[in-house]
């Protein structure tokens, strides 16, 4: 879940977090396809985290441009 502190981060930090989570998601998908991933719930969890971060990023961009 996104913490309250995350909501106060600037857009650059949010981009970095999104990028990091996308890398994690790619690695999870590779691990899943090779049968190495034991915690398959991490894929869904990471996707949801990316969506939440993108939402916060959009809000931040609207506030900065207003």
Task: Name the features.
mainly alpha, 66 residues, 74% helix, Helix Hairpins, elongated
Characterise this structure.
This protein is mainly α. The protein contains two helices and no strands. It has a single domain, classed as Helix Hairpins. α1 runs antiparallel to α2. The longest helix is centred in the last third of the chain and has 25 residues. The chain is elongated and about 45 Å long.
What is the compact description of this entry?
Helices cover 74% and strands 0% of the residues. It is built from 2 helices and no strands. The chain has helices spanning 11-34, 41-65.
The CATH top-level class label: Mainly Alpha
- The tally of structural domains comes to 1
Morphology call: elongated
CATH architecture: Orthogonal Bundle
Using the CA coordinates, give the radius of gyration: 14 Å
> Mean pLDDT, as a whole number?
90
Largest β-sheet summary: none
Write the layout of secondary structure elements.
Elements: H1 11-34, H2 41-65
């Amino acid at each position: 879940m996104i913490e309250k502190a995350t909501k106060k981060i600037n857009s650059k930090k949010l981009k970095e977090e999104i990028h990091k989570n996308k890398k994690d998601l790619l690695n999870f998908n590779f691990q899943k396809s090779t049968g190495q991933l034991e915690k398959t719930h991490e894929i869904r969890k990471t996707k949801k985290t990316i969506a939440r971060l993108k939402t916060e990023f959009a809000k931040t961009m609207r506030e900065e441009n207003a």
